[in-house]
Amino acid sequence: MKWTQLMTALVVCLLAAMLFSRACGRSEFGEWVGEQAPDLVLQTTDNRNVRLSDLKGRAVILDFWATWCGPCRAEIPHFVQLTSELESEGLTVLGISNEDLPKLVSFARAQGVNYAVGNAGGLVSPYVDVRAIPTTFFIDRKGVIRDVTVGYRSYSQLHKIVATL
Which pLDDT tens digit goes with each residue over 24-67? Predict the structure, then answer.
């Protein structure tokens, strides 16, 4: 193989690896994996305040989403199923949207959402850095971020990640 062909192949492989890692949604928040999840307070559609730090001892999924987002809507049945199957084993799902609460109440009822959804104010990094939805943080029972995904995930993909928590 000629030197130019080898270099071209290497560049193509590096670009493919970069695109693949970005497509998998891991590059934007990778530095947070293994770090303690910063606290946040979710004001839920049923007028409760859920504080992330109060959920230590439980595995937590923080899903940043919106009612108008097609991939977000497609993931909701997966989170409903995970909640039904694993809530009693210590899983909590929190859906965080910046839309107004009355809109979220109506949407959650229509979709049969069985987990807490609402808005969170005063967000800090990494949550304030979410630029694409859905973005999902997977937090273990000690409050450590174990994975962050950007974009749609199938039920089996989500379940596999949850199993590591």
Answer: 444 478 778 889 999 999 999 988 999 999 999 999 999 999 99
Residue 67 lies in a domain: yes
- At 145, which CATH number? 3.40.30.10
Indicate whether 106 belongs to any domain.
yes
Domain that holds residue 151: 29-163
HEC string for the chain: CCHHHHHHHHHHHHHHHHHHHHHCCCCCCHHHCCCECCCCEEEECCCCEEEHHHHCCCEEEEEECCCCCHHHHHHHHHHHHHHHHHHHHCEEEEEECCCCHHHHHHHHHHHCCCCEEEEECCCCCCHHHCCCCCEEEEECCCCEEEEEEECCCCHHHHHHHHHCC
Domain count, the chain: 1
> What's the start-to-end Cα distance of the chain, in Å?
46
* Per-residue pLDDT tens over the stretch 10-32: 344 333 444 444 444 444 787 78
